[in-house]
Design a protein that fits this description.
Helix content is 79%, strand content 0%. The longest helix has 30 residues. The protein is built from eight helices and no strands. It is mainly alpha-helical. The protein has one domain.
Length: 169
């Protein structure tokens, strides 16, 4: 048991920057969902949701840039190889992936419980999907899967690109 706690402590101390920024990322996602709801993208402007929701990439990428810059400047004294940037970004992406279901649950039950019913109604009324397809697609279980699969993929793509620009030897 002591070995387990020692390993946890080692991980947390070695990757405290990634942990911090992963939590900032999760908070940003919750704020983004709240903003989407407040401007009506989950209700009266749901027809535009599929367009504007993609703009979350801007703060998401920005967070990765700030995270890797902080990692380089604080943990590596201003010098960071591409490989070190990749490792840092992957660790951050894995933590974000672990937080993803929590973010989705908070979004679905607290911030915007009306999103799924509204999305289903819109998709069916505009003949984008049949009722059963819409109910399967716009469901908590599907969004939990999408988030858990999408987070590491998008995190890795973002990491590979951002680490190129942040590396400094």
């Amino acid at each position: 048991m002591i070995y387990f706690y020692t390993q946890i402590y080692f991980f947390m101390s070695k990757f405290k920057t990634e942990i911090k920024w992963a939590f900032i990322f999760a908070l940003m996602m919750l704020v983004w969902m709240l903003l989407e709801k407040l401007v009506g993208l989950h209700s009266e402007h749901i027809d535009k949701h599929y367009i504007y929701t993609n703009f979350v990439a801007i703060p998401a990428i920005t967070i990765y840039v700030f995270a890797l810059l902080e990692k380089r400047n604080r943990d590596y004294e201003g010098q960071m190889s591409y490989q070190q940037g990749i490792v840092s970004g992957i660790v951050m992406s894995l933590i974000i992936t672990l937080l993803s279901p929590i973010v989705q649950l908070i979004t679905s039950f607290v911030i915007t419980p009306e999103f799924f019913p509204n999305a289903i109604k819109y998709a069916v009324e505009h003949k984008l999907l049949e009722q059963e397809e819409a109910e399967k697609y716009f469901s908590l279980s599907n969004y939990l899967i999408q988030g858990t699969v999408g987070a590491p993929i998008m995190g890795l793509i973002t990491t590979v690109i951002v680490a190129l620009f942040v590396k400094k030897s």
